[in-house]
Amino acid sequence: MSKRILIINRGEIAIRIAKAINELGHVSVGVWTDNEPKAYHLSYCKEWTRLEGSNNSETYLNQDKILELAKKLDIDAIHPGYGFLAENSEFVRKVENEGIIFIGPNAEAIDLMGDKAKSKKLAKDANVPTVPGSLGEVESIKEAEEIAQEIGYPVLLKAVAGGGGKGMRICSNKNELEINFPAVQREGQSSFGNPGLLVEKYITNPRHIEVQILADKKNIFHVYERECSVQRRHQKIVEEAPSPFIGNDEKVRNNICETGVRLAAAVNYDSAGTVEFIMDEDKSFYFLEMNTRIQVEHPITEETTGIDLLANMIKSALGERLDISSQEEISQKGHSIECRICAEDPVSMLPAPGVVSGFDYSFPQGIRFDHCIYSGIEITPDFDPMIGKLISFGINRDVAIRKMRDALERLEIVGLKNNIELHKAILNEEKFKSGNYSTKYIEEVSPQDKIQLSSERRDEIMMAAILGEII
Description:
The chain is of the alpha+beta class. It folds into three domains: 4-103, Rossmann fold (3-Layer(aba) Sandwich), CATH 3.40.50.20; 132-201, 2-Layer Sandwich (Dna Ligase, domain 1), CATH 3.30.1490.20; 207-455, 2-Layer Sandwich (D-amino Acid Aminotransferase, Chain A, domain 1), CATH 3.30.470.20. The protein has 15 helices and 20 strands. A hairpin with a 2-residue loop joins strand 6 (155-163) and strand 7. Helix 3 (89-97) packs antiparallel against helix 4.
């Protein structure tokens, strides 16, 4: 039977969810708010309604208001997308208490994986390798110093409830640890309502590798890995599938993917989710965290496996059979790259709100663009600066890079600072092209500096042209 599914999100992910809902024959219901009255995603929904309020606390984060709206509209299920309430176990329980289906994992899995101390202990119990360091919350600077002395500097201080790059500080010595310990506590309290932190060994040249999980009430599958090592401020901007660092080492690939399944099984996982690992230079890997939701970078997995993660996530929540019935049915083909298109200064990489005055593209074959952009849209500080995801697919990595380069040249966003030029610099840089890069890529290579130089050169050329006309 057709279900009425409320999408409590916005932007490109709301569009993606609506497409999956519609394809499955259900009714997609979108929302608009007072601070985004011209929400682009509504054009993809079969129905839409006002979620009253002018800021996130009054709208996308207001659990009671959302539930009242769901009951009023006779909603059968709620899809949270990512961010906002996607990993809020309290919201999951409230939704289910009203007899409404939450499209995501069970609340217990969210609770366990949302706490870095609990998830690390659970991982160790499940024979999943973890980074050396504290097993639980560290209560004092003295205790942190003792752990750091035992495992050796540098160490990483991490907020137990952290995420999105927040609540993390690298300490190279005792003095830095003493300074950063209270700073991480404050950030943990202000951002997540929890001042607790962990102390872990900092891997010097880490690769960020994650395993896509897809599960229902009976089966847990992996949908292979992604590499997300190109980051700024611990936040991803370029992702690839499969990992170029793992390359053709199928033993390592199978090991990390099966380890991801083992962890998911330990928490009775029953939806789409991602197990994230840090991989050392010798390809040994350690559990980092589990994201109990759909990921921003899910399209590259869809492109290389042909599996619709959003549709299967919905089918799992509704108690329907997944599109696949065994791990053997899942295979990888070709290579896919995702560039996050953000409203931010390409050199400083800081958010740059503004209005899009012009927007155009003419992409080559093998390009997918998940976005919420239109001429006239205002990008405000209220929301994340990511406005689109450019995805290329090729028979191999070289082809995927070639297609992405061409697509970036053909994408025009006028009137708004954006990071297209930064992506061009990355895609043309030798270390990235070799596939041998770590999470330190931005700080070591500084592709943003190349943008500054090329921008100055363009100004020189333009000025020379103007002077030529005057003469």
